[in-house]
């Protein structure tokens, strides 16, 4: 996803606008007995992806989209299959279709940005990342910015994530790679050494250096996703989203194309126009046409199962097999870096970090949520609750967090919560998440 003026994709971009009637005939002809049920095809595509059978995944995902062309989930799965097969043009189109149909999954946005970057279209990638920046994991967002030609912005995002307590191997190694893309090789080496044995750091730096040239943007994205770029003429024409307009659009088009009514003139109108009573005159009713009859939307399909991952391996490069986690020493910062401190380090106190579990629209809901968290996780028995009011995009929320953690214990708490399928993240007390309009009210809630 890096900028380049010397290398352009040569694969043809195919586009075909089909009339509503033709599109309807094509769809009806393909979905009777030839195309399998949409959900069945979707499930087969997901299974094939998980097994690494990308060709089968593409075939089944295309069948799912053909059977239900306006399903955002199916379009996103098709994009994932194309991305895994290295077909970046087709992937970008499918992810864009999914977003247009209402997909709000940050993975879809990130996947679209990566596919566009691999095509050299940094402008489209950056515009989408900017629009969705608050929804994408900073560990992914920072690297995506760097790959799309804004490494300094990526450094800013990732260092803020570290300062906020997101001090993981993924964040550190993504930051190391981002430093490399920014040309700060000293900082890249220092950060890479946090998780890579000293004897392997030189190889890691050499690998990044080999991919640092501007024209290597596709190589960088393919390496991140661990896929092989393929010749790609674009998504098949018969799957183009504009072939399958919504029912509302079809009704509006039909109303606009309806012929004007022909009526017989009244005697007074005939005299006014200077014609006899037995003449036929086209009279156009000046009154506004009645609103077209509303056509009920087709019922939505049952929710599809969770999709396979689209992007973002745990770290940019696979960690050595001997990796046993971050050392106890603080995260160092290169002397040339403008950031004096990139990560909060536990100082021995057990009250340096907070663990946030969720945000709620009312204070009463937040209070009730804390009671549920306490009953669900016995580890919270000796921790106070901190409920913080926040303003995000003009909306008020009440964040529920637990106090009294050190960095290590906060991470362990979040691991427990995430293993049960719930959301959680830790942050340093001195650096709360953006949007807080007060420091929170700490309540002694250690007994239930």
List the helices and strands and how they pair.
Blueprint: H1 20-31, H2 38-50, H3 54-67, H4 72-84, H5 88-100, H6 106-118, H7 122-131, H8 138-147, H9 151-163, H10 169-181, H11 185-192, H12 198-210, H13 217-225, H14 247-257, H15 267-273, E1 353-360, H16 363-376, E2 385-392, E3 395-405, H17 407-419, E4 425-428, E5 441-443
Antiparallel strand pairs: 1-3, 1-4, 2-3, 2-5
Helix pairs in contact: 2-3, 2-4, 3-4, 4-5, 4-6, 5-6, 6-7, 6-8, 6-13, 8-9, 8-10, 9-10, 10-11, 11-12
Structure characterization notes:
The chain has 448 residues and is α+β, with helices and mostly antiparallel strands. The chain is built from 17 helices and five strands. Strands 4-1-3-2-5 form a five-stranded antiparallel beta sheet, with helices on one face. Helix 6 packs antiparallel against helix 7 and helix 8 (138-147) packs antiparallel against helix 9 (151-163). The model is unreliable at 1-35, 268-296, 302-310 and 326-349 (pLDDT under 50).
